Structure formats: structure tokens, C-alpha cells
Amino acid sequence: PTSEKYLTVPYSASYEFFKAGTSTSSTSSSIAATPTPTNAPVCDSANQGSYYCIESGVSRAYEVCVNGAFMSGTCPTGTVCTTSGNSIVCNYPPAYEKKGDLVTFPITRFNKNPNWKDAVAADKNRIPGFHSGLQKRAISAPVINEQFNYIANVSIGSPAQTFQLIVDTGSSNTWVGANTAYIPTSTSKYTGTVSNSYGSGSFSGNEYTDTVTIGDLVLTGQSIGVATNSTGIVVDGILGVGPTDLTQGTVSNAYTVPTVIDTAYSEGKISSKVLGIYFQSTTARLSQNGELTFGGADTSKYTGTLTYTSLTTTSPASHYWGINLSIMYGSTSISSTIPGIVDTGTTLIYINTPAYIALYKEIPGAALDNNTGFVKIPSSSYSNLQPISFVIAGRSFTLTPTQYIIPQSEVTLYGGTPGSYYSYIGNSGAANGLDFILGQKFLENYYSVFDTTNKRVGLATRA
After folding, report:
1. What is the pTM of this model?
2. Keyword Ligase on this protein (predicted)?
3. Distance between CA 257 and CA 242 in Å, rounded?
4. What's the CATH number of domain 300-462, 3.30.420.40, 2.40.70.10, 1.10.10.10, 3.20.20.70?
5. CA-CA distance, 355 to 332, in Å (whole number)?
6. Given the residues 168, 210, 262, 369, the one annotated as active site
7. Which one of 2, 21, 50, 377 has the largest count of C-beta atoms within 10 Å of its C-beta?
8. Annotated catalytic residue, options 210, 236, 262, 343
9. Active site residue 245
């Protein structure tokens, strides 16, 4: 919790009463009749004006019996509904109180073709979008990699519809409708229009708040975009888990809109704005080999301890999940400290041109292969390859040659020549404030934590 009020008000004294008939002090909004709460009797004259918490001590949501029907209401942001009856209590929980358990659910790696040359091209197209910063979001933003994505099944509305959404730390709007049509239901509320661009793709349409279910996590008021027009995406939309500021200027009548992490926290479903991500390498076209955890880190998915580093202040990396690091090849320094980002939507690993040149200068015969888009390393140099280390907060996160070289069993999938070796590490361009991208091929070896509350990123060796 970061709210000053939240931290300074004593738990025993911090509450507000909302009594029946005192609408001036209540946040109740009689917008629609809702199903009878499971913990409430029939809404009749005997129970007129009675309140019922939907999830006592967990959620802000409550129902009130008005003229024979239950109406929806919510306690103020930062509080939870804790008492039912003729009056309702909205408590500010004590600092660092756990509001709910970690919410963990699987994600699936989806390979469109697979076509690795197109994947490299998509990565290359994505990079310029990161450099645009927030000012140009309306015309240029990260491209969505259609070839290799991690997707989550997300249900929306009541009755629920299920959508397959790309998990993307490089964008923050959650939206649907690229393929499966969204049908408004009783829980849908129109809030405005929305538009965003992803480099080679874009979407525009309407913004709603609705009930969103991700695994066991149920968000009753999540802002979602619904595409009426979209291009460049093969699944249903995007689950945006980047920083909230990336939503600036995308929705009418709103400066920003809350991400799913923001909503999970404000509705009391998680105790902190933290996302844990677990990836595991696979060659299958469709494989459930990843996991998202809302509210913290899944300790079963990594070994040792998490190393945290503060977010960088260097733009444009600072607009994303940006950090600082240095690079070593064996015992040779390849780059001093540079800013860059950790990004689930990028397939490979990219370093700026000076570091790229310095790295491959150390490997005799290494050269860019135009047929594949990868750096090709002759077999005579393979046995002498050294580990590559990304030094973050004083700790080396190392990739061995087997971790940054395409396995021989997969070379033909990449369009390569059997017996030759190809590197996952590419060139991101000139040094300009976003000088590396740690994409999926890095994250498949290291568990990652994106901590909005403390403005930091954590990494640990994947279990």
C-alpha cells in the first residue's frame, strides 16, 4: 500500500459508516438490479435498507436491498466491506495486511506458423515503437509479435465470454474483439471510446467496465477496450500488464485507465501491485508452459532469492518496465551500465549497436545471416563460446552458450543450415536511452517480478 492516508490512519479507528437512507455519505449507486447475494435473505419489506458484503473483508463491493431488489455499491478505494446489516462498515485495512491470496493461473505459448524470420522482423518493428515514448502513443507504439506469443484465457461479462489475450508487459490497455466478438451483458457499462496503435497493427472502438475473470481472479469493474476495428493481431486482443501511464491518451474522457493489476489491488483481491511471470522453453506450436501470478511471486517457480533493481529514470526506457544493467562476455566487458527494458512481447534478446559489435568481435567468424536474421557462428568457434552475463544490481544473470544459441534440433525451423550455429542475441540499434530488450529467450531462463508498488523489477533463476 502506498496511500499516505492508508498508512497513517490507525486500523482500530479507521472506518466509515454508510447507513440506510443516508445517501449523501454513501457511495452506493443504484444502477441496476443484481442477483441476490449468497449471504443475504430475500430482499423484501422486512430487509428494506439492509446491506450485504459480497466478500466480507476482501472486496469493496456490497449490495443494498431497495424496493424489493438488490442494488450494487462499492466502498471507497482502499477500503474493504467488513460488516453487513442495517449499516455497513468500510474499513481501511492495516498497512501491509494481506487482502487475499496470490492468484496464479497458466498461460500458453502460441506459435503461429512457426516462422522465425517473421518473428525477428516483428521484433525489429517493435523496437522503434518503444522509442516513441508517451507523446506519440497515438501514432506509434510497440508492434505485436504475431509469430510467438504467450496468451491467457480471460473471461468477460455475465454470462461470461472467453477470449485469448496476448500477455504484454510492453502495453497496458486490456482489450478484446480482434477475432471473437464481444457481446455486452448485464455487467457491461460503456465509458467512452478508445484507440491505440501497435506499429504494424492497431485497434479502435469502445471502452467499457465489466466483470473480468482471469483464473480464480474476479474483477468486477475492470476497464476494457472493445475493438470495432483492428489490424495485425491473430488472437482476440491484449492483456496489458505494463505501467499505467502507457494508457495515457488512449481513452476518451480519461487521463489514464487502470490496468488489471491496478483493479485487482483496488478491489482488494491482491495485497500489492505485483506480477510474477514464469516462462519455460518449448518447441511445440501450442504449449501451456507459463504462469502468471497476481499479487506476488510464486516461490515454487524459482530457486534462490529474488534480486530487485529500481526502475530506470532514463527515457524512453523509463516509460516501460525499464532497468539498468551492464554486459559481460566471459570475463570481457561488453558494455558499461545502460538502460533498457524487460519485455514479454519481444521474442529474442537485443543489445545496442556498440555492445552488439563488441560481443561478436569476440567470436571469430560471427556474422549476420540475412536468410534468417540471426547472427551465424561457425562450428569452429562454437566450442570456445563463453557465457554472456547481464549484471543487474550487482548480480550476474548468465546465459550459457546452450541458452543463447539455437539448438541444432531447431535450426531448420529457423531457416538455418544444419551444422551451423545461430545466436538469439540481436542488434537493437543506436544507443539512445533504450539500449537493450530482455525478451522471451531471457525470461525462459529467469523468473521475473514486476512490482508497481515499489517501482522495481525482480529476477531469480527459474526452477
Report:
1. 0.74
2. no
3. 12
4. 2.40.70.10
5. 12
6. 168
7. 377
8. 343
9. no
